[in-house]
Amino acid sequence: SKSFLNQCISIPGCMLILLVVSGPLRRKMAQSVLSTMPGASTGTVVVKDPLNFWGGKRVTLGHEKNAEPVYEPATGRVMCQMVPCGAEEVDEAIKSAHSAYLIWRKMAGMERARVLLEAARIIRERRDNIAKLEVINNGKSITEALEDIDVSWHTIEYYAGLAGSLAGQHVQLPGGTFAYTRREPLGVCVGIGAWNYPFQIATWKSAPALACGNAMVFKPSPMTPVTAVILAEIYKEAGVPDGLFCVVQGGAETGTLLCHHPGVAKVSFTGSVPTGKKIMEMSSKGIKQVTLELGGKSPLIIFKDCELENAVKGALMANFLTQGQVCCNGTRVYVQRDIMPQFLEEVVKRTKTIPIGDPLLDDTRMGALISKPQLDKVLGYVSQAKKEGARVLCGGEPYIPSDPKLKGGYFMSPCVLDNCRDDMTCVKEEIFGPVMSVMPFNTEEEVIQRANNTTFGLASGVFTRDISRAHRVAENLEAGTCFINNYNISPVEVPFGGYKMSGFGRENGQVTMEYFSQLKTVIVEMGDVESLF
Ligand SMILES: NC(=O)c1ccc[n+]([C@@H]2O[C@H](COP(=O)([O-])OP(=O)(O)OC[C@H]3O[C@@H](n4cnc5c(N)ncnc54)[C@H](O)[C@@H]3O)[C@@H](O)[C@H]2O)c1
Ligand SMILES: C[N+](C)(C)CCCC=O
């Protein structure tokens, strides 16, 4: 099979990914590395290409002001520099997006669909390489990253299918007069992403935006700047007008510039609650529409009549994907008292066998957390939980893989906490790491009240064989999603988003077409004007 680097030739943006070597050898390899190296592995990839994209091409900034190192979580090594865009560059990107928007919005929905389908096809063709880069920059396992890339092209295909279906309503009025409504795009939309699903978040936002006829300027997290620009190149290759999907790099300052820019019609944000509040406040100044996909502390309720093996598997899926750094994770696991011993035994047994290590290896199921500060924060939550009376049944410690190149990586062992109470910090706050808190409950009424006793409301889950109970619980949980007898599946066909402080607006599903379009009413008079004047 072709090596990763050989395959990178087919991704324009990856052509300058070099293996790290020093001195003269490095210069010699610059020409030959793509055809001779045996394949990229953890600890070897350096990204040199510019990571900004507007006007249909990658853009090198004329400065390196405020450059920040970007780390490979599995090794702790610097893999590239992220240079944040300032006011001038943000303005250029938005102007470039606006000129593309003027062309794109006039194209028939079916024409837009054809271009989007081509983008989906290219992503599918290059999924392995995109997934590898995602792993190197994010630390999640290759198995999960491949799934994320598949979800990404599914998303684009799905919205391509809806692009031709934008339609209004015809309304009959007295005297033959009538009105009709049109669904029109908003203009230039901004997407701001978190680091846990870098490529997938970029597609969850851009696919519906573009399908509706908008342009998008996307800002990835400064910690994961590498793959969004590949999406920009793919859209370009698929045939979007230059500028339709732009990428600007940066952190809070760049995000602020985007939210305040008068040329922006909407901000779609994925990230934490505190940042979400700022986004909403900034957007309010320009009366910009906002979608907020924020954090969570979701309850997973396991009744004694559940199919236990599925409930245990569900609890693991609810807690340990992407090293627990998932917004909708079901981290408050409520187990009906009668089955607590069996549940704990099984869940701990399985958690202990999760293979942790090099995320690029097929057998690995848990890679590295995003950063050293994030790792320290999560370990801090475990210490705090112990102080507050929780019992660590397994994990919760730094993990040092045997492979020497992973010694500087941000690994920890997945943790199950028992003896938890609702008032503990680990049960109240979003940890965003592989830490499951387990609590007993007695009755349905009691557990629903406890599950809802939070300011968050992103997701929830219930395991039971009782179909009436399942739907009753789903109805009563205050959350944007309720999984019955599974957890953390999110097919693109179904809406995803929060209640309460987990945000508003939705991603995925047909409804998101409404969040990226606006309604115009046209009233047609068929008689004479009856003037009062
Ligand atoms: N609901 C969802 O779909 C979803 C998905 C993934 C992550 N999340 C949440 O995201 C959080 C983790 O991600 P994070 O640490 O990247 O979140 P974060 O809020 O720190 O950052 C998110 C993004 O906002 C940008 N940003 C930060 N300050 C800004 C400002 N003042 N103005 C504009 N932009 C600004 C960041 O650069 C980044 O791109 C968790 O709380 C998690 O639950 C939610
Ligand atoms: C694909 N998942 C697992 C449902 C995650 C969605 C994005 C949230 O962080």
UniProtKB/TrEMBL annotation:
Annotated Aldehyde dehydrogenase domain ranges read 66-522
Q: Which reaction does it catalyse?
A: 4-(trimethylamino)butanal + NAD(+) + H2O = 4-(trimethylamino)butanoate + NADH + 2 H(+); an aldehyde + NAD(+) + H2O = a carboxylate + NADH + 2 H(+)
Xref: CDD domains? ALDH_F9_TMBADH
Pathway terms, separated by semicolons = Amine and polyamine biosynthesis; carnitine biosynthesis
- Record: active site: 293
Q: Does this UniProt record's set of keywords contain Iron?
A: no
Q: Which domain of life is it from?
A: Eukaryota
Q: Which UniProt keywords apply?
A: Cytoplasm, NAD, Oxidoreductase
Single GO cellular component annotation?
cytosol
Indicate where this protein is primarily found. cytoplasm
Which Pfam family, any one, appears in the UniProt record?
Aldedh
Q: Please verify whether the record's keywords include Glycoprotein.
A: no
Q: Which GO terms describe its molecular function?
A: 4-trimethylammoniobutyraldehyde dehydrogenase activity; aldehyde dehydrogenase (NAD+) activity
Give the subcellular location: Cytoplasm, Cytosol
The record's section on PROSITE patterns has: ALDEHYDE_DEHYDR_CYS (PS00070), ALDEHYDE_DEHYDR_GLU (PS00687)
Q: Quote the function comment for this protein.
A: Converts gamma-trimethylaminobutyraldehyde into gamma-butyrobetaine with high efficiency (in vitro). Can catalyze the irreversible oxidation of a broad range of aldehydes to the corresponding acids in an NAD-dependent reaction, but with low efficiency.
Read off the PANTHER family from this record: ALDEHYDE DEHYDROGENASE-RELATED
SUBUNIT field: Homotetramer.
Q: What is this protein called?
A: Aldehyde dehydrogenase 9 family, member A1a, tandem duplicate 2
**Native species:** Mastacembelus armatus
